[in-house]
Amino acid sequence: MEVDLFMLVVLGTAITAAVSSSPNLYRTVRKNGFHRELFTKIFIPTSLIDAKCECLIEEQFPPGLYIDPYELKNYREKGGPQFDSPAVDIEKPKELSPNLVFIIYPQQFTAIGPEYVTNVTVPVHIRYHQPSSRYDTVQIQLKNPRLYLLCQVIDKSIQMNKKQFPCNSVDNNCLWTEIKYKTDVINIEFDVPVGSLHHQGSVISVTLAVTIVCCLYLSSKMLHTHVK
Q: pTM score, two decimals?
């Protein structure tokens, strides 16, 4: 009995140490179709950073994904995250679109047990892709973001680079510290349906036939009205 109790204490200590050893980032995608929500949750042990830390997420979106800055602005007015966004042409297909870098400022950390925790949800959209003769679906991969802190980092082992970004609450720039973290996924993957070039002939034929029928119908209605 004493041995079992000892083992439970050792196991509990090991789990606590594992939980508190390094920052962690959890990500998932909600909703389906071309309009999704990207949920990110960050856990940082209280022993590693100062209590007043501010957080910044640097997201690099591939050409097949984008965030609509106007939609994010509406989110902000309803209590959503602050952000810094490039100009985004939401009408362009993936093949004509560049990589985009978005800066997202999650809400302040909350102390929950031995960790500081924060999370953020942003709407993401999948661009339309040109039709293919080889694939019915293509895959988009969103890499994990860079994570920065604005505060005193107590544990120097998690520090990486320093970089200038706009401050959260003022217009000038601040020097943010990039930190290492562990995560449950390497990439977020999106499966996107694409049109088939094998259907191009039939689509053109049907479209042309419908157009001709509609024109003939409208012409007959106009002629009938004129005769009256």
A: 0.77
